[in-house]
TrEMBL record:
<feature type="signal peptide">
    <location>
        <begin position="1"/>
        <end position="21"/>
    </location>
</feature>
<comment type="similarity">
    <text>Belongs to the bacterial solute-binding protein 1 family.</text>
</comment>
<dbReference type="GO" id="GO:0042597">
    <property type="term" value="C:periplasmic space"/>
</dbReference>
<protein>
    <submittedName>
        <fullName>ABC transporter substrate-binding protein</fullName>
    </submittedName>
</protein>
<dbReference type="InterPro" id="IPR050490">
    <property type="entry name" value="Bact_solute-bd_prot1"/>
</dbReference>
<dbReference type="Pfam" id="PF13416">
    <property type="entry name" value="SBP_bac_8"/>
</dbReference>
<keyword id="KW-0732">Signal</keyword>
<dbReference type="InterPro" id="IPR006059">
    <property type="entry name" value="SBP"/>
</dbReference>
Amino acid sequence: MDRRHFLAGSAAAALARPALAQGGPTEFSFFYPVAVGGAITRVIDSYAGDFARENPGIKVTPVYAGTYQETLVKVLTAHKSGTPPTLSVLLSTDMFTLIDEEAIVPLDGFVKTDADKTWLGDFFPAFMLNSQTAGQTWGLPFQRSTIVLYWNKALFRQAGLDPEKPPATWAEHAAFVERLTKRDAAGNVSQWGTQIPSTGFGYWMLQALAIEAGEVLANQEGDRTFFDKPGVVEALQYWVDLAQKSKVYPPGIVEWGTTPRDFLEGKTAMMWTTTGNLTNIRTNARFDFGVAMLPAGKRRGSPTGGGNFSIAKKATPAQQEAAFRFARWMTQPERAARWSIDTGYVGVSRAAYGTAAMKDYLAGFPAAAVARDQLEFAVAELSTHENQRVTKALGDNIQAVLTGSKAPDRAMRDAQAEAERILRPYR
């Protein structure tokens, strides 16, 4: 794939695109995964308004559809009823599900000009792993992420650790969390060494550990998983040992949503979570903090994550063309850079990091470059046919291990058996 930097301006690209059908304005709905209200909805509304002013023949109506999971359910329900939103931001891992439901169209047919091809070729390759399959492009990266390590520099100093040196390996991570966990004489913990959330996206966290142990969880075709491989079991054992053996990690389930709050309140000295939390932490932390690539086992690594633009198959051709124009407009380098700065998500293209705004931002806040740099070691997030069922089977077994009801090897055999049963018909 051509990976040249984006060269043509958005105005030139717009002039090069074919005209929409004449008549009244083309209207389409845009499902975005967030609850109604809040700053992010105002940002999306402003983008929709700006686009409409630049493209008076197109009207975009944003609809705030809840969580990613809720948005997917609403999109598929609307698809079955025959009136789906034309454009949606859905998890990149839902690609196979959306293809199997015949809910979306490949986007290659909308890529017609040299400027289009250059723009498409500039997305980071790691993000395209969950956006393309069988030689076709099904999603456009928009709000994408990797998992990174955050650490509280003040708590490092208190523990006698170098505040500028995060753990670079599993062994260092295990040693650091021992020193960072605070207990009273009775053994009650007031500060944990680290937190790796296990609800919601526990499979994502295990995938990071598995990559670092030298394993991947699934093939690129989305029809085979490898949950029972030795490295996956090793990764899960490392995770559970932090809680059950070393007791430097909260026992049982660690909530995805409360982990950033625990970090901000000093209840944990480190956390593994999405780079999408970066702006939140920068805005609200009352202490110096650092951001680093995840510590390495046999290798470095993180799965990618986050959402892509998808276009509905049942929309009219005019709506599909209008939606593509909007998605292309939203992912122009300057806009992708601004979205990254405002939210903490990774700028999705190389050209976004060449903009003046991004260069100025990174000069003042180098931590924002960590997630981008980690893409060199990233692999596709776990994505299969019937992905919701497969990841649920894996997530349920991860939680069984963390709550002490299963051993890691038994849990991963059970998860693999269930995934095999689900995916066998797709091979």
